[in-house]
Amino acid sequence: MGGHGDYHPVKLDPAVESWNVMRENVWKTFRFTNRTARLSLIWGIFVPVGVFAVCQAQDVRPTLQLLTDTRQGENFLS
C-alpha cells in the first residue's frame, strides 16, 4: 500500500525544507534591531494611519437633502 517504504510522490527540495524550518522557528531567534524596529513602525503604525487618513479624506457623508424624500417632503431621519 502507499506510504510504506521510501516512496515520495513529491520530490523534496532541501533549500525549501530548510527555509520552512527557519520560518517555523523564527520566534526563537527574532530580535529587534534598527531595521526590524523601523519596519514594525512603518507597517504597524504609519501604513494603517495613512490608510485611515485617505479613507477619511474620501469619505462622502450624506447631506440632509439626500435623506429627504422630495416626493412627500418627509425626512428619513425622524
How would you explain this protein's 3D organization?
- This protein has 78 residues and is mainly α.
- It has a two-stranded antiparallel sheet.
- It is elongated, with a radius of gyration of 28 Å.
- The mean pLDDT is 80.
Short synopsis of the structure:
The protein is mostly helical and 78 residues long. The protein is 50% helix and 5% strand. The chain is elongated and about 65 Å long.
Please write out the topology:
Layout: H1 14-24, H2 26-29, H3 34-57, E1 68-69, E2 74-75
Antiparallel strand pairs: 1-2
Classify the beta-strand content into a percent band: 5-15%
What is the strand tally? Answer: 2
Helix/strand/pairing class, anyone?
A: mainly alpha
Poorly predicted runs of 5 or more residues: none
Shape: elongated
Main sheet: strands, sense, barrel? 2 strands, antiparallel
Q: Output the radius of gyration.
A: 28 Å
Distance between the termini: 73 Å
* Average pLDDT, all residues: 80
Q: Numbering strands along the chain, what is their spatial order in the largest sheet?
A: 1-2
| Helix-strand string | HHHEE
Bin the helical content. Answer: 40-55%
**Number of H- or I-type helical stretches:** 3
